[in-house]
Amino acid sequence: MHSIKTDIAWSAPDSITAFGRDLPSEILGHVSFGDMAFLEITRRIPDANESRMFNAMLVTLVEHGLTPSTIAARLTYLGAPEAMQAAVAAGLSGLGSVFVGSVEGTAQMLYEVMPAPDAAADLPALAQDIVERFAARKAILPGIGHPFHKPIDPRTPRLIAIATETGFAGPYIALVQQVAAEAERQKGKSLPVNATGILGALCCEMGFDWRVCRGIGVMARAVGLVGHILEEARNPIARQIWLQAEQAATEHFRADPAATTG
Amino acid sequence: MHSIKTDIAWSAPDSITAFGRDLPSEILGHVSFGDMAFLEITRRIPDANESRMFNAMLVTLVEHGLTPSTIAARLTYLGAPEAMQAAVAAGLSGLGSVFVGSVEGTAQMLYEVMPAPDAAADLPALAQDIVERFAARKAILPGIGHPFHKPIDPRTPRLIAIATETGFAGPYIALVQQVAAEAERQKGKSLPVNATGILGALCCEMGFDWRVCRGIGVMARAVGLVGHILEEARNPIARQIWLQAEQAATEHFRADPAATTG
Amino acid sequence: MHSIKTDIAWSAPDSITAFGRDLPSEILGHVSFGDMAFLEITRRIPDANESRMFNAMLVTLVEHGLTPSTIAARLTYLGAPEAMQAAVAAGLSGLGSVFVGSVEGTAQMLYEVMPAPDAAADLPALAQDIVERFAARKAILPGIGHPFHKPIDPRTPRLIAIATETGFAGPYIALVQQVAAEAERQKGKSLPVNATGILGALCCEMGFDWRVCRGIGVMARAVGLVGHILEEARNPIARQIWLQAEQAATEHFRADPAATTG
Amino acid sequence: MHSIKTDIAWSAPDSITAFGRDLPSEILGHVSFGDMAFLEITRRIPDANESRMFNAMLVTLVEHGLTPSTIAARLTYLGAPEAMQAAVAAGLSGLGSVFVGSVEGTAQMLYEVMPAPDAAADLPALAQDIVERFAARKAILPGIGHPFHKPIDPRTPRLIAIATETGFAGPYIALVQQVAAEAERQKGKSLPVNATGILGALCCEMGFDWRVCRGIGVMARAVGLVGHILEEARNPIARQIWLQAEQAATEHFRADPAATTG
Asked: For C85, which of A89, A214, D95, D146 could close a Cys bridge (C-beta 3.0–4.6 Å)?
């Protein structure tokens, strides 16, 4: 049986210690919010390159406008404006396998064939191996292609540029690009790496466990969800989204009331 | 009826715009995670002083070790490790009136008597007014005193020092200190400003609506909760917390089974 | 300090006891789901009239089609179909002051002027007192009028009929009807009691603390939300609701891109 | 693209229709809460035997005392007593693969080898097949054995008795018992069917999709969680659970402060 302990933080009447550092004198005013997020994940302060890359990774996931997650949060706020934390919680609850999940899916996919960074790896062969494995189990390759952003996800080249500047454009970034190239070759259509694919590869470059990927998404989206709730408080739209959906459904009933007995 | 619109972000096939800026070229790599949080709240990029102060405010709220919120998140992860976002959501759901609420309580208390910063205000008189109002309705003054951190909350002087360095040690910081002094005078015991009291005053110094206070807490705790879930995955303690609680409850039943019919 | 105890249930290796009863032999097969809900609230088994009335109260709140709550749940399921419990949780999170809150608002309103059932009370005078109090603080009377169901909420007469049959049509039902009549007289428009108003009055008739009202709503909606998630799995609509909202918002941006800098 | 429609319910100004029935006149007062839950799952009213069996299934899952889920809900309520719906939501969020998941795990396991009820099936051969499959992939058999209830889960024989009385003791109940017998034979220790195993088999007997299993658990636990929150409001224990956990963790730090740098 594990005993009840945590290495994260503890308090004495006159001190608070987090990750082995005195929170007031060593963290507050010295560590930015993004670097604090890195500290929560790795238990150490990032260096300048790590900080720049990791902050860009987090910021990429903060905002994508009206999504299922931000709409769910706004609808929840409509019913319980006294509990905005619950609205953010509702929005986070949908960050599962379908949307944010492709970051961790990419990381798992890359780690599976290259468990540790290997500069000498035969990347085209590994990419071919990946594409064939996924085809064999009829699974969709994560991090590749985008239903809306065409010809490419505009975040992809920017994240690669920052990775190059900070020294994180290593074998996993190269591998995920090879996977996309191989998929394009086999499918005969354009399937460039999207933002979640690059983010998954960057998690590998940083040595993060694949479980960390979803955590980064959750941190980032919590920030964006608060922004959406504050806008909803100023300029509400959730009621209108609800009423339009209800009206559409009601028209179906009116057109075919017998459908309800189905 | 409001139409369905948001000023936060929108996408075209080849671009993503957030807060009127091109996300890839103007935000990624230029705006840190903490500054992105500021952008979500204010719709503008902070200057250097705002950034330093705001990041310190966020970081203050990230981590306080084992709290009801972090334990609830860990217990949720124990049952659904495949949905870590739901565990973070469960942890956020408790950030209501009792804990994080004292930040917004302090901001509301200060705004009520000084709706806009007023360098010429008679702070002792305003503080006396506040303390008497709260006494009249038998309400607890928010942001004052601490059940555990004695003689003072170690975060308080540090936050004041950063506020002084960045130019945010204005009339609201002075007022909340006067409130504490007045409360100490009337109650005859030490009641210094705690971290949430300073954070509430800083939200006023920054001109934030009091609703923003809880949003800052939610952003910050989401980051801390992810850290706790990742630690729980490495070194689980939730099961032990559950079993100890269940054992304590069972001993009560064994000692007095008839109690259950009560 | 309270010790850790619960009177609800405990287990031994060979037995499970709930509310002082042997769960397998005294509850399973003997107590229906609705009566188990009554047992959770009151710690006793309902008699036949209580059971009929309480089941009707619960059932009233199970289903109202596409609501902010059911849409939020469906949008959450869209992102995390592997965690349907989190989708239901997201849907429940919005059952706050705005929608389900009017049941407890009605109960509080009635208890405030008639703390215990009083067959001799001057109901018109109490109703006038209530309407004037709410007018004085510019508050909306809960449980009265309905934005959509006109001339009356069709659930109202049915709930009153069941209350009459089961002996629960007492002074609180009469009082809430007087409140509606008085409001109609003062406002000069039709303001009949709606379903939440009758449910609030019925909670008073049953002697429930007003906090119980929201609990009844939460129990009932959880059942309805599961139904909506199962339908969403068979016949998904959340993606379409999302895309229509996003498209409407995008049209605003296209029409006036400068708005985003606001 | 699916259009926005639901077959569950719709409203006109003077009527509410649910599952093709007039809610006020055909459901309220006629359909119990448990039968309404059945209606949400199957879109039809259960007959008397179905009702008795299904209500017993739901009631089995309502209450098991202090669990990770009920403790998480109580801790959430401690921080946000104004939002009890969020506390229930937090409690539901943990009903994932580990606890309630074994009901659906059992149903999937049984459906995999017997997709439709087959009175002529060679049950010992099917059971052997199941046990070998699970052994081959080193997976734990769901619904078998219990860490605490010994020699048997006291709910198991009672659920089987009700199944026999109501005509639901069919081939799936027989098969899950064969699986337990085969597992006992191979492992050489007592591994009886537990309550979740019987419930999973009963879901198969009722012809429910395996996804429905978790829905039944969510409905049932929502009822139990409301009971725990109402008890927490009367007799709070969450603070004590938190403080004991925090104290245990603090003792570890005091004993070995250097551990925090790990």
From this structure: D95
Question: What's the order of all strands across the beta sheet hosting A15-18?
Answer: A9-12, A15-18, A21-22
Q: How far apart are CA B232 and CA B62, in angstroms?
A: 17
A214 and B85 within 8 Å at the Cβ level: the answer is yes
> CATH fold of B101-206, please?
Cytochrome p450-Terp; domain 2 (1.10.230)
Chain A residues in contact with C103 (beta carbon < 8 A): none
Query: If DSSP states are collapsed to H, E and C, what string results for chain C?
Result: CCCCCCCCEEEECCEEEECCEEHHHHHCCCCCHHHHHHHHHHCCCCCHHHHHHHHHHHHHHHCCCCCHHHHHHHHHHHHCCCCHHHHHHHHHCCCCCCCCHHHHHHHHHHHHHCCCCCCCCCHHHHHHHHHHHHHHCCCCCCCECCCCCCCCCCHHHHHHHHHHHHCCCCHHHHHHHHHHHHHHHHHCCCCCECHHHHHHHHHHHCCCCHHHHHHHHHHHHHHHHHHHHHHHHHCCCHHHHHHHHHHHHHHHHHHCHHHHHC
Side chain identity, residue C220: A
Which residues are within 8 A (CB) of D4 and not within 5 positions of it... i.e. 6 or more apart? A245, A248, A249, A252, C237, C240, C241, C244
With cut-offs at 50, 70 and 90, classify the pLDDT of residue B262: very low
Q: What is the mean predicted confidence (pLDDT) over C13-42?
A: 97
Largest interatomic CA distance in chain D: 70
Chain C residues with beta carbon closer than 8 angstroms to that of A237 = 245, 249
What strands, in cross-sheet order, belong to the sheet with D15-18?
Answer: D9-12, D15-18, D21-22
List Cβ neighbours of C256 (8 Å cut-off, separation of 6 or more). none
Dump strand ranges (E) for A47-188: none
Residue B222 with chain A: CB contacts under 8 Å: 88, 92, 218-219, 222-223
Cβ separation of C98 and A76 shorter than 8 Å? Answer: no
Q: Which two tokens stand for residue B93?
A: 């759901």
Domain positions in chain D are: 51-236
pLDDT tens per residue, range B1-43? 458 999 999 999 999 999 999 999 999 999 999 999 999 999 9
- CATH superfamily of the domain spanning D51-236: Cytochrome P450-Terp, domain 2 (1.10.230.10)
Q: pLDDT for D82-131, tens place per residue?
A: 999 999 999 999 999 998 889 999 999 999 999 999 999 999 999 999 99
Q: Which ipTM was obtained for this model?
A: 0.95
Q: What topology is assigned to A64-235 in CATH? A: Cytochrome p450-Terp; domain 2 (1.10.230)
Q: Which of A2, A3, A10, A75 would best serve as a mutation to test chain D binding (most D beta carbons within 10 A)?
A: A10
Query: Pairing relation of β-strands D9-12 and D21-22?
Result: unpaired
Q: Which of C2, C10, C26, C246 to mutate to test the interface with B (most CBs of B within 10 A)?
A: C10
Contacts of B17 in chain C (CB under 8 A): 253, 257, 260
Do residue A72 and residue C76 have CB atoms under 8 angstroms apart?
Answer: yes
Distance CA C246, CA C205 (A): 46
Q: Does domain C60-235 have CATH number 1.10.230.10?
A: yes
Q: Do A249 and C66 form a contact (C-beta atoms < 8 A)?
A: yes
**Per-chain mean pLDDT for chain B:** 94
Q: What's the predicted TM-score (pTM) here?
A: 0.96
Cα C218 to Cα C207: distance, rounded to the nearest angstrom: 19
**Measured between alpha carbons, how far is C220 from A262 in angstroms, rounded to an integer?**
23
Q: CA of D85 to nearest chain C CA: how many angstroms apart?
A: 6
Q: Which residue of D has its CA nearest to A12?
A: D250
Contact D40 C31 (CB under 8 A): no
Tens of pLDDT, residue by residue over D76-87, are 999 999 999 999
Is residue B53 classed as helix, strand or coil in its secondary structure? Answer: helix
φ, ψ at D46 (rounded to 5°): -75, 155
Q: Which of B76, B78, B99 sits opposite D90 (nearest CB)?
A: B76
